[in-house]
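Retro notes (design track)

What went well: tokenization of the new backbones is finally stable.
What didn't: we kept losing track of which sequence belonged to which structure.
Fix going forward: every design gets posted as structure first, then sequence, in one message. First example under the new rule, 243 residues:
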């Protein structure tokens, strides 16, 4: 298994070019490792933090919480992702984080990230670009929730997480781990758990999708992507970096 900072660097290199010195500086970041239990919040609504969260192990979700306690998941985060890099400039959380599985999170101090960004302009731009990539995913989720039916929403989520798992070297787009319950899937796609179950059965018949937690397998990726109207461009996964 890759070290968390190695995995983080590889994710940055998917869309940015970094010099040898810049890469060494990123690998030299440090932080406190915290073990978080399944269904526990890592950052709560309104909390002010002095660190960013680098996922070392497990699956983490960003969420918005209603007054009655209901939650809408707005993004998912895999090992190697620093899922709230934006907190460096906006430390009071409006979008909060919770562990969907037992997880290990590295709390990287904002002070380290500030120093690195101020020392290397290109690293600052790389962090900016990473935030942009996360924003693009959020925008796609908004569009899916507002305009697509349940089958397309679930299909799109499976396609997205398969491609992201593949780019993170955690599996392939057709075979990867997604350790979510049907209730958690429902929170991500804005339907009921019963509707999630019916949708998964439909996709099993039509695209050969099997979802036996935590493993997802897709026999007919092209059909699933067509149902989802999936265009991977929004993920900004351009291996080799951008100038």
């Amino acid at each position: 298994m890759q070290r968390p900072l190695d995995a983080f660097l590889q994710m940055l290199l998917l869309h940015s070019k970094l010099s040898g010195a810049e890469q060494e500086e990123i690998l030299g970041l440090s932080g406190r490792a915290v073990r978080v239990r399944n269904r526990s919040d890592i950052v709560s609504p309104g909390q002010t933090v002095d660190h960013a969260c680098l996922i070392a192990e497990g699956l983490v979700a960003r969420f918005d919480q209603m007054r009655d306690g209901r939650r809408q998941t707005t993004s998912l985060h895999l090992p190697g992702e620093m899922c709230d890099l934006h907190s460096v400039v906006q430390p009071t959380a409006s979008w909060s984080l919770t562990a969907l599985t037992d997880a290990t999170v590295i709390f990287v101090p904002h002070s380290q990230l500030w120093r690195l960004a101020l020392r290397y302009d290109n690293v600052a731009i790389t962090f900016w670009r990473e935030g942009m990539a996360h924003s693009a995913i959020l925008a796609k989720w908004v569009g899916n929730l507002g305009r697509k039916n349940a089958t397309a929403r679930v299909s799109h989520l499976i396609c997205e997480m398969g491609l992201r798992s593949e780019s993170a070297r955690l599996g392939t787009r057709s075979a990867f781990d997604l350790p979510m319950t049907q209730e958690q899937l429902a929170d991500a796609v804005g339907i009921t758990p019963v509707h999630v179950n019916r949708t998964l059965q439909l996709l099993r018949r039509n695209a050969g999708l099997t979802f036996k937690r935590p493993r997802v397998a897709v026999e007919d990726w092209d059909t699933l992507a067509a149902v989802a109207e999936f265009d991977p461009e929004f993920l900004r996964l351009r291996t080799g970096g951008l100038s």
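Added context from the reviewer: The chain is about 40% helix and 20% strand.
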